[in-house]
Amino acid sequence: MFKKFRLKNYRTHTDTTLELKDITLIIGSNNSGKSNLLSGLNYFSMLVSKAFPGSEKSKMLGKHNFFPHKHSLSDSNTPISFYCEWERDNNNTAYELQIYCLNERSGDIGCKEKIVISSNGSEKKITHGHSEKSQKMLLRTKLETEALTYDEKKLTDTFFRSLAFLYYYHFQPAFLKGQAFPVIQGKPAEKKNFSELFVNSKKSLNIANEIGREGAHFQELVKYVKEYDEVSYGRFLGYLKRFVKSFNGIIIDKGVTKWQFDMGTSEFPYFEPDKVSDGLIKAGAVALLCAMKIPPAMIMIEELENGINQKNLSEFLSWLTHTSENGIRTQFILTSHSPSVIREFSDRLDAVYNIHLRQRDYKSIATNLNDAIKPLVNMGTIEEEGVLERDGKEVIQVKPYELTELFYSGILGEI
C-alpha cells in the first residue's frame, strides 16, 4: 500500500506531498492543479514501467522527459522529482527519482535514483546516478546484482510492479457506453476486437491499459472477459452486484454486449449500454479494473461525480471503499469539485486535500483538510462532531452540512 507521494517542480507542483489512504480525495476548482498532480504521478509511473530490466524499451532519458514537465517559471538547473513510500506486511520501501538537465544546449538529461529497503528489521540503501552521472534509469537493473535477501528481493519486485501499475482515468459515460471514441490525429479511434488480438496470441491482455483514458474500449473488454476469462468475469459480476443488487450479468446478443437485470419477474430483461445508467456504467469500469488477476495498485479517477446521480454518490463511495479492501487490493485517488462528494468525507478529513493555484507564482498549494479545519473548529467557525485517532493522528469529524456550507461560502477554496 502506498503511504506517501511527493512531487517537486512538476508543472504547477513545486512541492506537493500527499499522505495516502485507501481512498484519497483531491478537491479544488478548475485550473487549480488537480489534473497536473495526477498527470505527474502517472508520468513517473510510466517511467518506472519502462525501466523494467526485461523491457526492450529504452531506459535512456531525453529532453522530452524534462523540459515539457518542469514548472514553466523554474530554471533548467532545478530537477523534477518524485518520491514515494510504500508498505507491505510491516516492511517498507522508499523510492526517489530525480530528473535534471545535464546540458541545456545539447538537451542531455540525467537522473538520480535511490531506494531504501526496510525488511525484517534491517535497512539497505541503494543508489544509481549519484556517484557518477547517468542518462539511463538503471536502478531496477542494478538491483538484480545486489546482495539482497529473498524477502528484500520479493519486496522490491512487488513494490516496482505496484509503482508501474498506477493508472489515470477521466471516464466519460458516452465513451464507456461505446457511443463516442477519442480522436487520434484527426480521426476517431476504431473499436478493437480483443478476441482477434489476444485469444491466439502469446501476448497478455492488460485491461487497465486497453480500456483507455476515457473508457472508450470498456464494452469490448467486458465482452472479451465474459467470453474468455471466467474467473475475472466472476469477480466483475460479484463487485457490481454489491453496487446494484438487481444486476444479473452480461449477455452477448448477436455480438453486442447487453446488460441484464433481475426485475422481480420470471423474465430477466437485458438492455443495450446506452439504456444503462451512467453511474452503473462507471461502476462497471471500476469493477472490471478491480476484477483483473493483478488489479492496478492505484486507480486515479478525475471528476468522480460526472454521470453519477447525487443521491447515489454516497452509495458509490461506500462501494469503492469495500472494493479497495482497505487499500490491500487497490487504492484510489479521486478528484472532485462537487460539494456532494466532499460531504461524504466528513468523518475522514485526513483523506482529503484541497488544491488551489497561487496566482502570483503559479504554484499549486495542497492543504490537508484535517489540518486546515482544526483552526476553524478552535475559532468556533464550525462545530466539531467528534475526534478519533487514525495512523497516530487526531482526525476531526464534522457534520456533512458544515463542509457543504464551507464550500458554498468560499472558505474551503481559500484553505
UniProtKB/TrEMBL annotation:
**Gene3D superfamilies per UniProt:** P-loop containing nucleotide triphosphate hydrolases
Q: A Gene Ontology molecular-function term?
A: ATP binding
**ATPase AAA-type core domain location, by residue?**
23-342
* Residues passing through the membrane, by range: none
One Pfam family, please name it: AAA_21
Domain of life from the UniProt record: Bacteria
Write the protein's name.
AAA ATPase domain-containing protein
